[in-house]
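Need residues for this backbone.
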């Protein structure tokens, strides 16, 4: 399936390809076009538009395109829902919603500047979202198993967390 968005990707438009590839469409192809070419590209390439004005998978109220995809595709993974908070905070300039938001915004700004094109930016961004996803999973595991974890030394704790991540 093809997906189309605006040129010069940033937070939401780097997070959405990660979400699409990991949870919606592993064989997704992405197209980046000027905003005025989105409608034409949708028709010509039968592409699904996202993070563009007036599209279903765009900003609605306080929510960003990442949120729209999570809702539409009924993604309920608790760690993805935590990543969504970070993306929303960074993309809507509400950095106080998630402590990681300012760092995410800074990294995506840097990638956008140093990358040769949007394809390179999303390739560089994917491991960052993988790391946020893993960190969110770890946060949830730590909350759930707090009493057990407190009894472990550093080595045992690391082993325990790695095993829980693999479940």
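Answer:
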């Amino acid at each position: 399936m093809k997906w189309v968005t605006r040129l010069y990707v940033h937070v939401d438009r780097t997070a959405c390809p990660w979400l699409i590839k990991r949870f919606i469409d592993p064989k997704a192809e992405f197209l980046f076009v000027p905003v005025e070419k989105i409608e034409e590209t949708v028709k010509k390439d039968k592409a699904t538009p996202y993070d563009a004005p007036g599209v279903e998978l765009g900003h609605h109220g306080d929510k960003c395109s990442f949120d729209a995809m999570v809702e539409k595709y009924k993604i309920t993974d608790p760690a993805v829902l935590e990543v969504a908070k970070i993306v929303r905070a960074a993309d809507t300039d509400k950095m106080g919603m998630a402590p990681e938001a300012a760092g995410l915004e800074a990294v995506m700004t840097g990638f956008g500047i140093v990358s040769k094109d949007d394809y390179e930016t999303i390739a560089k961004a994917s491991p960052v979202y993988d790391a946020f996803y893993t960190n969110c999973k770890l946060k949830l595991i730590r909350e759930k198993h707090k009493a057990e974890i407190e009894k472990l030394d550093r080595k045992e704790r690391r082993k325990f967390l790695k095993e829980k991540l693999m479940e």
